[in-house]
## 1
Amino acid sequence: MSLRKIKRPQGDFWFDFEAFAEDEDGFWLRGPVGTPWRAPHATGSSEVPVVVLLAPGRPWAAWWVGDPADRRLEIDVCRPPERDGNGWQYVDLELDPVLHETEGRVEIEDWDEYDESVRNGWMTADDAKLARVVAEGCAQLLHQRSEPWLDRGWKMLPDS
């Protein structure tokens, strides 16, 4: 199953994941080490395992990244993901709340990309507001660690 992440103006990023679960929290995709990806500037394969949680109508996608140097849960703030013919797609809104699992630190990354997108008109005012509100809300969620799906993603992560 493909996941298409649209970054403006860079272009489309594609990941070839396996759909493996659906529950009350959404649709779960996984990519073990070696999962192919394509970007406008390169192609390759994943060096670390990942799990992704998506749901229609929800303006974020959660990525559990099994990087031994920095295990982390990254939230891609986005327009709500949509199913397409052979997978999923979403428009990235740049801001990324991240929980660095080992040290428990939460931060919101990519303010520079967000500012550039707003300044250059690649993001509407409504999308910019959505990005800020959702990023701040998701960062709080990561701090609180109260949602059961936060830990469920780690349990679903493929072995490195």
Note: Residues 2-156 form a domain with the FomD barrel-like fold fold (CATH 2.40.380.10).
## 2
Amino acid sequence: MLIPVINRSTHLLPAYQTAHAAGMDVRAYLPEPVTLRPLQRALIPTGLFMEIPEGYEVQVRPRSGLAYKHGIGIVNSPGTIDADYRGELKVLLVNLSDEEFVVQDGERIAQLVVARHETAVWQEAATLSETTRGAGGYGSTGVN
């Protein structure tokens, strides 16, 4: 699948790091480093603008290494970039650790996953079909 992209950064385009990876690493594009204090969040630019095909989205997900080693996540994870969005891709990072973290220009800050989606149409109904689970919610399928 080809996705048109404008790269206004000085970095390479997002890329898969291994042959079977689902996500492509995307890099920060910063004029100067950004320091995230504990529990602080910041919108980090990438310099990328894209034209996602209709019927697809690009999901923005945390990088497991940043999460594990530094407690860095994404506030609205996974974030969604819709096919009709033409603005710059920015990543909403959050520091969930108890130490400051400095985001450097060119650092891999998130991964992008291209995913197909359906467009749903709601159909109002008076009843729903029965299932074994029924209305069991949070934790209802666990073993006691």
Note: The helical segments are 64-70.
## 3
Amino acid sequence: MLPSASRMRRGEEFADAIRRGRRAGRPMLVAHLKTREADVPPLVGFVVSKAVGGAVVRNRVRRRLRHLMRTRLTAIPRGSLLVVRANPPAASARSEHLATELDVVLDRLLRGRRSESRTLTDGRS
């Protein structure tokens, strides 16, 4: 499971990541990444609405996403806020497909972050 220190719990953190963070989406998942300058572990939160399914299905999807994020946590910059929202197709997805979708979304978010920092350091706008 995801380490306790890396779990997002406060509503303000969810709101900040969703409102002010970068967004990347796929049919199964949408992720919001808000980078902050802080020397603390990244915080990860999950949103699985009733549109995904009943309580058992939602909890299963959330557990699978937490398990997948555990191995990907080191790729997230320290101090960042990441919110992963599951869409209805995530309920019936195989774990391998869910992992692939998560990798694509995270790659898009992190690639965009690298190009932004490169632009700032190069002096280009």
Note: Residues 108 and 114 are 10 Å apart (CA to CA).
## 4
Amino acid sequence: MSTIIFAFAIFCGWLVFDIVKHRKLTFEMVLSSMIVAVLAGLLWLILEWIF
């Protein structure tokens, strides 16, 4: 459950950062935020399994 919350937080943070940086919302920004969130979630899950 913490992995999902972490990935969602990364998605929201990355999206807000892109919106502030570019002053607009595009599909590419949402897609890149989703990709980063999925990768961060997978890395977090792997770290949970290791430790």
Note: Residues 4 and 33 are 14 Å apart (CA to CA).
